[in-house]
Design a protein that fits this description.
single chain, mainly alpha, globular
Length: 154
């Protein structure tokens, strides 16, 4: 069996998962009570839907930023951190922006930079500051953290 290119297991899977998420969000957006769903939880100890969607985009955004060397901002941090009301179009736009960023990365660019690109894997609590993170290879980060988080939060 031929080895699977890193582009396919990273950008490819991220694109597929977030495309499915986008279709679901777009389908649900026709509901009259759609904005109330932003704050719903499947279980009491889970994050609300809007936060689940934002977390699903974290792995792809981290990988894109690391591969391109440019910081990528998908979510308006002021709106995310404030207690201001979030909207359904805002949520859909964030997923669309992530997908557009994934589309901008070529297989050649990924192949050229994948071996040398490092991403911070969290190994301790936030209170440990910089010691809470350990740099690991992009492929290891994607397989150990990025993809599982996307699938968990989607």
């Amino acid at each position: 069996m031929a080895p699977i290119p890193f582009y396919d297991i990273s950008i490819g899977y991220y694109t597929k998962a977030l495309s499915v998420l986008l279709r679901i969000l777009q389908h649900v957006s026709a509901r009259p009570d759609v904005d109330a769903l932003l704050y719903e939880r499947l279980a009491p100890d889970m994050f609300p839907l809007e936060q689940q969607v934002r977390w699903a985009t974290r792995g792809p955004v981290s990988l894109i930023s690391a591969l391109t060397g440019k910081p990528l901002t998908i979510w308006d941090e002021k709106q995310v951190s404030d207690e201001t009301e979030k909207t359904w179009p805002w949520l859909i736009a964030g997923v669309e922006k992530t997908l557009a960023s994934l589309k901008d990365i070529s297989p050649e660019e990924v192949a050229a930079k994948a071996d040398d690109t490092m991403l911070p894997l969290q190994i301790g609590p936030d209170s440990d500051g910089p010691d809470a993170f350990r740099p690991i290879a992009a492929a290891d980060f994607t397989l150990a953290n990025g993809l599982p988080n996307v699938f968990f939060h989607v």
